Amino acid sequence: MARITRVELSMVVLEPKVKRVDAIQSFVAQETPIVRIIDADGAVGTGYSYTIGTGGHSVLELLARTFAPALIGREAGMVEQIWRDLLFLSHATTVGAITSLALAAVDSALWDLRCRKAGLPLHVMAGGAQEKVRLYTTEGGWLQLETQAIVEDSLKAKADGFGGCKVKVGRPIREDVSRLIAVREAVGGAFEIFTDANQAFAVDEAIRRAHHYREADIGWFEEPLPADDVDGHVRLSASTTIPIAVGESLYSASHFRDYLQRRACSVVQVDVARIGGITPWLKVAHMAESFNVAVCPHFLMELHVGLCCAVPNARWVEYIPQLDGVTRTGMRIEAGYAVPSAEPGLGIDWDWEALGRHQAEGSARAIS
């Protein structure tokens, strides 16, 4: 092992590739805090997290003022110990999105460093359970799109070998149903259609909509209710045969434990950035495995492909390309499957010149 001698911080701002609108919000821009950790041997690990348009500077300040100084002199290989120490260092602001996003940037950098020094890719270092995971696409299913555009995108995804697509819901119920049925009739019965409400509904409305969405044979009903309404999810899950998916808006392993213990969901969509890094992501994935529940993470496909292949219960990777403009090589896709990189580290081939062009003014910091 070697001690951490320097931490470099920056933030890049990436525009979405397509207009992204759901039932409650728009994806304005991906603010991407980036952490580079250098140890006494000169080895470097790079990690990151993201927002969808706000809060990125708050994450960066927490990193610069609190987390980065606390890393100097620590043994870089003690990843679990560092994660817990930083969690308790920021205990007054946990559990919460800003702290989790900052923790994730540090933790993923430490895992990248650990994997590189061991000469292993993330999916092997973290478990080595699978060689590839099925892909579904979300990019063609945004709420503002008209039915014909969604149908055309789903047909293209099917032709490209994808196993499914996601359609955002939250229009008047009959419009939602009409859109879903149009997609189902176009793609046939073997192609999965997932739906996502982005926490838009109250319990009574979610129960009613689940009943009507059944006609389209959907694969899951994602974030139907506010994420803190566990009781509502219990009621909904008990009222429908449609799998209920949650996780992108949960920020601790104990939140997932509550959902799993109470049978409030049947698909776990743990997001490595919002849960606080790779270290807690793996805990949630294995906890879900003990309940015989599948893991289908939210967003960040370039990082989640390695994590999904590390655990046996990962079923899908969500295709939303966002890093293509700042990486030299993209995520490998073969016949509708996401394949993890065989290179040591997280498997993300950053283009540092391109990152520099997108860097937020004044965001670069160095702590040593």
TrEMBL record:
Keywords, comma-separated and alphabetical: Magnesium, Metal-binding
Residues spanning the signal sequence: none
Residues covered by the Mandelate racemase/muconate lactonizing enzyme C-terminal domain: 147-243
Necessary cofactors: Mg(2+)
Superkingdom of the organism of origin: Bacteria
InterPro entries tied to this protein: Enolase-like_C_sf (IPR036849), Enolase-like_N (IPR029017), Enolase_C-like (IPR029065), Mandelate_racemase_C (IPR013342), Mandelate_racemase_N_dom (IPR013341), RHMD-like (IPR046945)
Protein name: Mandelate racemase
Organism: Labrys miyagiensis
Source taxonomy: Bacteria, Pseudomonadati, Pseudomonadota, Alphaproteobacteria, Hyphomicrobiales
